[in-house]
Specification:
298 residues, 2 domains, 9 strands, binds nicotinamide-adenine-dinucleotide, alpha/beta, 3-stranded mixed beta sheet, single chain, Rossmann fold, N-(1-d-carboxylethyl)-l-norvaline Dehydrogenase, domain 2
Amino acid sequence: MSRVAFIGLGNMGGGMAANQAKAGREVAAFDLSAQALARAGAAGCRPAVSAAEAVAEAAVVITMLPAGPHVRAVYEDTVLPNAAPGALLIDCSTIDVDTARAVAAQAKAAGFRCADAPVSGGIMAAEAGTLAFMVGCDAADFAAVEQALAPMARVVLHAGESGAGQAAKICNNMLLGISMLGTCEAFALAERLGLAADRFFEIASQSSGQCWSVSTYCPIPGVGPQTPADRGYDGGFATAMMLKDLKLAQEAAGRAGAATPLGAQAEALYALFDRQGFGHKDFSAVIQLLRGKVSELA
Ligand code: NAD
């Protein structure tokens, strides 16, 4: 358990690998980026010369890569041929459900235990070790997965069998995208009707319109708890990331034959906002699109 291989040391993986090292685990880290590798070295990990070398003697292999094709390639080319027999393979990237299930099937056929374990929480949570993990794995393997993820986690939740973690992640984020757009529309209408935003916040957050986007992550500056709206919509959960997750949800819905018309609308609106050059802004900044005030975004 103490030997961990960590592949993908970017915005998220860098902080996550550092927390594995802080917990006293021997972490062999690898990334294609020399800069990311050097940062991991400074944070207490051992920079490996290749991904194959990193995984060779690890009891746990964690990947945190951009998207499905990267995960498939790293698993097929490096992890499965080189990992130690019996190693526990955990992919924390956000990827499509089909790829997650396909790589899990390959891993199991090769004799490995494996899990998909995407995260909720951004770069700050990755650095603080307070991510929420949604896990798809065999029930018998969950305790080992939970133990492996503990130094990086606020909570580790078992969603079901392989692919269920990714399914939970995209369903949750589709709901979040829709609820944020609904929240933004309601605040924009309230403004047009001459209703003060702080009054509407107090009323909606104690009435049936209440949701996380209203009460905890209000898109209006100076209203409710501190949010990215209070710092020019910088930091937080980027519009481009929300768009990626909404696309994954729509692709999954198409393949599964599920009706998700509001998810489709949410994808279209976030795609429009992203095309206007605001992919880096927090996803709550989409309120400026609905208010016709994108010019106010720096
Ligand atoms: P990132 O682009 O910063 O990091 C990805 C890293 O993977 C890069 O450093 C890249 O060099 C490395 N990489 C790519 N291919 C590789 C390979 N073949 N071998 C080794 N390294 C390779 O991305 P990120 O923001 O860290 O996100 C990672 C994953 O986490 C994504 O799936 C993303 O959707 C998900 N996620 C991100 C956030 C966030 O706020 N950034 C939040 C939740 C989930």
